[in-house]
Task: structure prediction
Amino acid sequence: MFPTEFAYHRATSVQDAIAFLGANPDAKVLAGGHSLIPAMKLRLAAPGALVDIGRIESLHAIDVRPDGAKIGAMATYNDIRDNAGIARIYPILPEAIAEIGDAQVRERGTFGGSLAHADPAADLTAVFLALNGEIAVTGPNGDRTIKADDLFVDLWTTTLETDEIITSVILPAPPASNGMGYEKHAHPASGYAVVGIAAVLGFSADKTCESARIAVTGATSKATRLTGVEQALTGQKLTAELVSSAAGQASDGLDINGDLYASEEYRAHLVNVLTRRVLTSAAGL
Amino acid sequence: MTTTSELPETAPETRYIGKPIKRREDPRLMTGQGSFLDDIRLPGMSYAEVVRSPYAHANIKMIDTGAAKSMPGVLGVFTGDDFMDINPLPCAWQAGKVTNNVNTPRVLAVDKVCQVGDPVAVVVAETPYQARDAAAAVDVDYEELPAVTDAKATTADGAPQLHENAPNNIVLTWECGTDADSVDAALKAADVHVTEEIRNQRLIPTAIETRGSIGRYDPGTDEYTLWETSQCPHVHRLLLAAFVMNIPEHKLRVIAPDIGGGFGQKIFLYWDMPLVLALAKKVGRPVKYVEDRSSNYLTATHGRDHVTDVEIGATNDGHITALKVKTWANLGAYLSTIAPGIPTTLYGRMVAGCYKIPNIHVDVVATYSNTAMVDAYRGAGRPEAAYLVERVCDLVAHATGVDPAEVRRRNFIQPEDFPYDTGVGMLPYDSGNYEQAFDRALEQVGYKELRAEQQRRRRNSDPKLLGIGLSSYVEVCGVAPSKWIGLPGEGWGAGLWESANVRVHLTGKIVATTGSLPHGQGHETSFSQLVAEELGVPIEDVEIQHGDTAGTPFGFGTYGSRSLAVGGIAMYKSLQKVKEKARRIAAHMLEASPEDIVWENGKAHVKGSPEQAKTLGEIALQASVAYDLPDGMEPYLDETTYYDPPNCTFPFGTHVCVVEIDRETGEIALRRYVAVDDVGNVVNPLIVDGQLHGGIAQGLSQALYEGAVYAENGELLTGTMNDYAMPRASMVPTYELDRTVTPSPTNPMGVKGAGEAGTIAATPAVANAVLDALRPFGIENLDMPLTPPKVWAAMHHAAGAAQAAD
Ligand SMILES: Cc1cc2nc3c(=O)[nH]c(=O)nc-3n(C[C@H](O)[C@H](O)[C@H](O)COP(=O)(O)OP(=O)(O)OC[C@H]3O[C@@H](n4cnc5c(N)ncnc54)[C@H](O)[C@@H]3O)c2cc1C
Result:
């Protein structure tokens, strides 16, 4: 468990970090270190340098307003879980965070790190998709935002450039009347999602489902929206039968992976069952 | 939270024995003040890293160390050829009375590798980082050979062959019990005949501290010192000096510092131990080698890995009349130190469990395969035996329609049957009251009500399937009488007695040594309790020393739940000797005859005149200054005992597990876990409960979570803790513990042993619960670990049957 040699730079500002990345093409950003450091110890990753963004004060802030929330990329899982405004408006976040790893991981791991790392079995990737978030990004050419739907490309691959830094995660205000939730079957060894389903539903005054964003993680090579299920629900009054039949198709068309622990068949089955369960509770059925 | 019902105290009037005293070592160990192997920094320390084979089976064509030698900080790079003067490691326990085709590892592989991770070269450097970097620069050319990993497959026609002296990869074949023909006849005559293949999967022990060693050589005195993560430093010194390195025993000192768990894995002699000693001499510097977790998973020993074909005969009313067992035991690429003894003596001779089974025949085939070595792992043989016979009880229940509880009750050995000979070559079980513990467990869990609830739920097609699993176990502890287990008997290449020295210093403070070795069991507390109790001194006045061959008399170490039942008795006997001598000195001081001296409240006085009492301190002072001792008496209170037990001890009990399975996902929730254990008399109930908690966690984890998996080419697929599922606190239930106390007649303290009971009992309790829940699907057996995907697949594929049952 000894990484190869690397240089270490503690960034004082986002600009400082960007400059360091520009000058050191084999450098990587270090956030909570709970994906990167294990990979380095196993020598699966061997960056020549690390730029630690942990001491950049502005990246830790959590700002919750009526029109949405801005969560600093370095906000840890526990920072987010413990924020009263987040818990009130986005209860799916503390719910999903409670399912991540163990106490140490939740104390160190960050929202920004989880999204940048894009592990196919991470939890907040699916939640981020369901919440229709975007990330604020700074690079050598300035600032830009990337929408959740445009972020994930493949296993551990995103549309983020290697010299860019996520500065915050921006979440729109959820629909005025909503239901949201996260259901997970955890891998017994890693604790990651074998399958995780995140759902955010919006309702009209007469309880019609006006919007549905549902995403799966763990089952495929990247967190993915279940658009078929979303369409089946949108514009409908949700009943147990409707939810059940929509969820029964959840895994259709997905390119589901199998592994030592769970077959494709089992994962597909879990996608359907957990989708039904999360929708049933989010819809208050 | 854990509930523990009131525990019967061994002797209510005691001051220390039977009291739940908190572990004295914990403040040190839990605040980072322990000294574990990797904490040790010697002046001039250098670091070794090995180059490991990526292939499970290959010929080594060429090793080029040139590039590595010129890397920064490198002090030396060596291959197997540099250590041809070091013998292969010994196999110290070969199965008794049969031929063992022995192949053991060398310090570094020569010409050929037989498992992924086999070390082929070693780098010594100034820092561990430099050692890693240079190890990566060693160039090795292999010719890959086909591999075999599954126990049954190893002996099949055409299987890849590992060792020339082991045709068909067979290490040994061994049998015990009634002759096969009689058992066949009994099977034929039985009302009910059941066959099943039962697998006890391979486990990776995963102590919190991995293994490691530090070697130092002093050219001035020609002395070697070895620090190592070991459960038995004396044994290692003996084996290293006399069998491996050919150095005089007194020129080698072995020290086991604080040990972060072992579970058996640290009993064995490993290649790195002689290697760091030899390297220290070659490079002229102390050399440290510490495994990382991945290396530990690859080449430290694993446990279990049995495949068993069992044939069962029973009467219609559930009496088991015959058992025919054929077991393939996968011992891995080479023989680890005591590997052959585990599936033979400690497994084959325990398959009767706590039942009177008139006809048992056991065949064991131990085999080589291209996998990590398999040796003793917490329970060692007994978990495999308990799992087998407890699954057998449930299979009989299903075949006969008799309730699983009733099957056990009808077959139990009864209290009046002890000492009881099971007919498979084990020493006679010492004492027991199996039904009493069983009844108590059933009552505690509410067995009848649970069965009624299960009926109700099955009728209503409840989304949660209720399962109730029973496990009544007996195990063998306190190993062992040397006369029985030694070379002429069971093949163990030495004795298995234990030593203890008790020394009362001039100031009345006591230092006691034990040849056993704590690595999580709390000896420093329980042995101190024993000393303080017997000598009537405050526990603060007692120090327990262990782990350094320079400081303690020879001892065989800690495994097989033997510390208290063997090592503790050695100490008890030394304490009696100290007391006897102190009595004679007190008599001299009080001008009375020794027979008139009584010990009370830690003081000696003449019967009837307690006001003129002598404390142990006063007596020790007298013994030590020595100017007024009885004629002919040697000075000092210093007594040593070497205790060889007359029999093993046989703890027992019943565990009951209640599970709920999600019909839709196969997810398993542990609803209740009740354990009633009988470990004989109890010195420290807190420590015993702790041992049971940890043991149960390990046992249930085998049933539900853990399992080492190899690819066909011999790659370890569960090579990290990302893939190999160790239980977390959130994955285990609340334990409801209770006890019965049946003292062992084997030793004067009436103790049995508690280190492995939980592990042995829990696996079948949990597996039986899961399979009990799945009864409506007609599922007879599933291989562990019983994961949700596996349970779901079984239910899914048996869906037709399930509908019929609904
Ligand atoms: C034992 C264990 C169990 C775990 N279990 C789970 C689990 O159940 N569910 C789960 O979702 N995760 C789990 N994780 C992973 C954990 O959530 C990580 O913390 C997370 O994936 C990465 O966040 P981090 O802050 O630690 O990032 P780091 O490890 O520091 O970085 C990860 C990657 O993202 C890049 N990066 C980080 N921050 C930024 C940024 N602001 N801008 C650009 N690039 C950035 C880094 O360069 C690196 O490539 C587990 C980890 C461990 C060690």
Remarks:
- The radius of gyration of chain B is 28 Å.
